[in-house]
Amino acid sequence: MRIVLMGPPGAGKGTQAKRLVDEFGMAHLSSGDIFRAVRASGSDLGERLAKYMDAGELVPDELVVSMMAEAIAGNDSTGGIMLDGFPRTVPQAEALDEQLARAGTPLDAVVLIVADDDLIVERITGRRSCPACGKIFHVKFMPSGNGEFCDACGDGQVALVHREDDREDVVRQRLAAYAAQTQPVVDYYRDAGLEMIELNGNGDPEEVAAELMKAMRTVGLHS
Ligand code: AMP
Fold this sequence. Notes:
By secondary structure, the chain is of the alpha/beta class. It has one domain: Rossmann fold (3-Layer(aba) Sandwich), CATH 3.40.50.300. It contains eight helices and seven strands; from the N terminus they run βαβαααβαβαββαβα. The chain has helices at 13-24, 31-40, 44-55, 61-73, 90-103, 117-125, 168-191, 205-218; strands at residues 2-6, 27-30, 81-84, 109-114, 127-129, 136-138, 195-200. The chain has a five-stranded parallel beta sheet, sandwiched between helices. Strands 5-6 form a two-stranded antiparallel ribbon. Strand 5 and strand 6 form a beta hairpin. Helix 1 (13-24) crosses helix 8, helix 2 (31-40) packs across helix 3 (44-55) and helix 6 packs across helix 7 (168-191). The radius of gyration is 17 Å and the shape is globular. Bound molecules: adenosine monophosphate (AMP). Adenosine monophosphate (AMP) binds at residues 9, 31-32, 35, 52-53, 56-59, 64, 85-88, 92, 165, 174.
């Protein structure tokens, strides 16, 4: 099963992706996570990525397509793939279609999670994450039981981080990039007749997860 998880930043894609991985054993390929790992390596490529990411702008298609093609080709999980944050432009979607068609493994469905802009800004600016285990917190909605430190890993000594691109001005820029460049990808998949599971991400993550699990079963995915 190959699924594309779409929606604006802060709609809850990361949280729901984790549920899908736990429930169905799918491999989670997040372009944002892959790019942050390249940045952390300190390479020249990482520096090029940083320039776009810190401004809330999209990384150019040719860079994105080659990095994601490599990640997809290198994935050997048997539980299927969930793409998160990719594709974000129509040329990326076309390149993905070509790669998957060559491999004889086309997409099965798109999961689209939407949410209101003001709620998204509140969610993202309060978001904190653990650099060691990846657990995501929110200063108001889901605080760590250990203050500014992760409550899930290490020995209580791992300080949570506030992503550079989670500042309000950058978040607004990311939302504008989503509307201009990524919304057309939703239309692209609709026009292609792909199964589209639409969820309202404004609510409680547990309710969204329950709806998502129900929808996944209707497209034939079983845990
Ligand atoms: P995310 O964690 O998915 O919000 O991604 C963080 C940042 O990485 C984005 O704001 C973009 O700068 C960059 N990025 C991630 N995925 C893509 C993509 N598919 N196309 C272009 N830029 C991307």
